[in-house]
Amino acid sequence: MQHPSDARDIRNLLLTITYDGKCFHGWQIQENAYTVQEALQTALGKIIGDGFDVKGCSRTDSGVHANRYCVSLKTAHPIPCERLKAALNRWLPLSVAALECEEVAPDFHARYSCKSKEYIYKIWNSQVRSPFLEGYALHYRYPLDVEALNSAAQAYVGRHDFTSFCTLDKREQGDMTREVKHFSVTRDGDMVIMRVEADGFLYNMVRIMVGTLLRIAQGKIPPDGIPAIIDKKDRQCAGPTAQACGLYLNRVFY
């Protein structure tokens, strides 16, 4: 959408939302699919009209959830932040909620001002599936040695070329180097959580990291095999892309 003509009146707002990705075909507007961006822009249109521009912090895919997703909103509308948050929570679908709204600097950008993001991946590790987690966690019925997987995952940490952990398409060009700041694998009862923070992520990077760790759990990749996979820069050497249902954008750091 276009900005109002008088740039001096434009406000820059940081919206933080949360959403159930099961209901959407990702964040970004698409011609023939319902997306989070479309839902948000439809609600904003009812509240402040059409003189606004939104930029999302990440391009989450179909079925991926967000505990916290950040949006920069430029508008000349004078509505106070608290009123905008309340109005959004009236007009947004039940699968999306506005958590916070605040004024930010004119040059703030939800994506480009981001220093790092944290994703979590949920695995329901039980022989019996949970009907309450369908679409919200990967059901994996075989034993998982969390300590062994956590140890193997430390090879992800650091600055590497993650070509092996990327689904290549026209969106991924140029430098494939990213810095992973943290990766952990923990258990809470039958729920296993994989948590990763990095300065940026390639297309399907977290889901391929998870799929590779599951291949290690199955004995199809050696426990110390991740460094060699990174070095080969070949997608075929890594594990499969884990299902989208277990992935959540958890936090965004600015």
Describe this structure in words.
The protein has 254 residues and is of the alpha+beta class. It has helices at residues 36-48, 81-91, 146-153, 205-217, 226-232; strands spanning 11-19, 52-56, 65-75, 96-103, 116-124, 138-139, 158-161, 177-188, 191-198, 247-253. It folds into 2 domains: 7-103, Pseudouridine synthase I, catalytic domain, N-terminal subdomain (Alpha-Beta Plaits, 2-Layer Sandwich); 116-253, 2-Layer Sandwich (Alpha-Beta Plaits), CATH 3.30.70. The chain contains 5 helices and 10 strands; from the N terminus they run βαββαβββαβββααβ. Helix 1 packs across helix 2 (81-91) and helix 3 (146-153) packs across helix 4. The two termini are 25 Å apart.
In short:
By secondary structure, this protein is of the alpha+beta class.
Instruction: Tell me the number of structural domains.
Output: 2
Distance between the termini: 25 Å
SS element count, helices: 5
Under CATH, the topology of the largest domain is which?
Answer: Alpha-Beta Plaits
pLDDT < 50 stretches: 1-5
Q: What's the rounded overall pLDDT mean?
A: 95
Describe the largest sheet.
Answer: 10 strands, mixed
Secondary-structure topology with pairs:
Layout: E1 11-19, H1 36-48, E2 52-56, E3 65-75, H2 81-91, E4 96-103, E5 116-124, E6 138-139, H3 146-153, E7 158-161, E8 177-188, E9 191-198, H4 205-217, H5 226-232, E10 247-253
Parallel strand pairs: 3-10, 5-6
Antiparallel strand pairs: 1-3, 1-4, 2-3, 5-9, 5-10, 7-8, 8-9
Helix pairs in contact: 1-2, 3-4
